[in-house]
Amino acid sequence: MRLLFGVGRCAVVRVSEPVRQACAHEFSFAPSKSDADAHDVIASRKAELGGRGAGPLMQRDRELRLLDQLLDDVRRRGRPHLVTLLGEAGVGKSRILHEFRRAIRERGGARCLVGCNRSFGPDSPYASLEGVVRSYAGITDADGPAELTNKLRVAVTGLVGTGPIASQLVKNLRDLLVQGAGLADTKPVFAAWRRLVQEIAAREPLVIILEDLNRVDDVLLKFVGDMAELAGMLPLLLVVTGRLELAERDSYWSGGRRNASTMSIDPLSRSATHTLLSDLLTRAEPTEAQRQNTPTGEKLAAVCANLVDQVGGNPLFAMEYVRLVHDGAMSTRALAGEPGAAAGPNVPVPQKVHNIIATRLDTLSPAEKAVLYDAAVLGDSFCRQTLAVLGDREATSIEECLDTLERHDLVRRSRFGVDLGHVEYTFTHSLVREVAYSRLPRALRADKHMLAAEWLCGMSGEPVGLMAHHYKEAVEHASYAGLDTRDIARRACDGLIQAGHQALARGAQRTALHGYRAALDFCPPDHPQLPELLRWSRDDLTEANPPPRPKVTPSASLG
Ligand SMILES: Nc1ncnc2c1ncn2[C@@H]1O[C@H](COP(=O)(O)OP(=O)(O)OP(=O)(O)O)[C@@H](O)[C@H]1O
Ligand SMILES: [Mg+2]
User: Fold this and answer.
1) Is residue 123 part of a domain?
2) Looking at residue 123, what is its pLDDT?
3) Do residues 167 and 66 both lie within one domain?
């Protein structure tokens, strides 16, 4: 049996009738326009208010309370309100709405309709509006054209009776469901959708959930933004979700609207993340192999403590890391810090997590990306001045880029220095740094590490450990990139010797020793100071007998 008919064009998956039937619980389909026997996948059913069955909900009381208050408000005042839940991928926007909808169902007193935008192709740009109509009218994928029209008619006449308005509504809503991207004019269709929503809300308080607005086109974005203003005095709560980039869109209603608000969905706290990891790790697993990889007791606590930083409060990331543990891709012995296990937990970034972060980075401009990548070379914390050293950029342009990166929640200000204008930044998540760093070509990494090391070398009271780190990385990446590392290694050696001298001059003997020993690692056999370096690297170095100051070769750019 031919299961998959083939990918007709980019982003359209086409399947046969038997496959459609077999997967009807997983995906929504539409009859293919070009192949009479085939169906196109248009959306994932699982994506509808995702996060079901994923274990207990952690720490979202505040958000759920706020949503309850907004619903009470629209009910009491009979006035619409639009609230946007904004947050990074996987932070739990849909999960909050899943819980909110469940609570409404249990308590009663309002109707809730949901529309998602997880469409699989360009044929359904208004999938979220469609979803609302389908769920109100009870239309399923199994319904043929006649049944679809019939169900629409029943739903519409139940609201507005029979007559010309009913016919117009049925016609336009049918166009919305059937024509998708082929709609010649969205105005009458959107107006029909708004009228349907108004009619429902006139009968009972209504909550409309529209998911993933960052995916929709500007026409729909504007329509949704206007909805709360133009719907009239009705008990209507419009709840929409979007990833952080939604706030950057021109057509997004960023502020100044009377009936609108934004709820920022922050990552979970460390303790909630710990509890979530522990719950996910110990949940009954189906296979024996997975059970064997599941830590227990003290080991479980140690594994969770090690993963908390990686997860950074993102529940989706927590699930992906736990998957790696269960699949045996991560040594739980190393994660638990057991003696005899490989030194330090070497935690890989799960592919899905990597992809999510990479997608976020792709929304940045080339200049913003370049600043972020340079920051990744510098380490966990960095400042504007250091960034200027790594790239040939104006201070104001760096500041503008940092502001944007901060708005995108990729970096944050961590400390203000003594000088006005000296601000230290950190990455909001260590994974952002890892992914940004992984995108820099090796040769460029070597070049940037060398620049950073030489800049540190010229500073008074320079941190020798950090400098040694940059030199080591420069040599490693240059050799990976197939570059000649002799010159880099020699300069690394000279810089580390100089750092050793400076440390010794201020009485930091252990730091000096560390510098000399690091220098030995890079010292070429023909280095004129090799014999002295060997002597300085011994434990008996004293301030009474300081080593002579070596000449440091001036820096040059890497070839
Ligand atoms: N507070 C929480 N406690 C426990 N699990 C959670 C919590 N929030 C989310 N999850 C789980 O994490 C996963 C991702 O959550 P969800 O789908 O809600 O993220 P999202 O913010 O909607 O992401 P996207 O932007 O991709 O739509 C789901 O499986 C969900 O059940
Ligand atoms: Mg979601």
Assistant:
1) yes
2) 57
3) yes
Assess whether pLDDT exceeds 80 at residue 23: no
Domain boundary among 292, 316, 348: 348
**Within a domain: 392:** no
Decide whether any atom of ligand 1 lies within 6 Å of the 267 Cβ.
Answer: no
Per-residue pLDDT reduced to its tens digit, 269-289: 999 999 999 998 887 565 666
SS3 115: strand
In angstroms, the CA 497 to CA 536 distance is 10
Please check whether residue 278 lies inside any domain of the structure.
Answer: yes
The residue whose CB lies within 8 Å of the most ligand 1 atoms, and thus the one to mutate among 44, 93, 316, 355, is 316
Give the whole-angstrom CA distance, residue 517 versus residue 520.
5
Q: How far apart are CA 318 and CA 307, in angstroms?
A: 8
Residue 106 resides in a domain = yes
Task: Write the secondary structure of 224-255 as one string of H (helix), E (strand) and C (coil).
Answer: HHHHHHHCCCCCEEEEEEECHHHHHCCCCCCC
Q: Provide the CATH number for the domain around residue 100.
A: 3.40.50.300
Alpha-helical regions (H) of 161-238: 164-179, 186-203, 218-230
**Residue 50: CB within 6 Å of ligand 1?**
yes
CB atoms within 10 A of CB 337: 15
**What is the residue whose two structure tokens read 């006005």?**
420
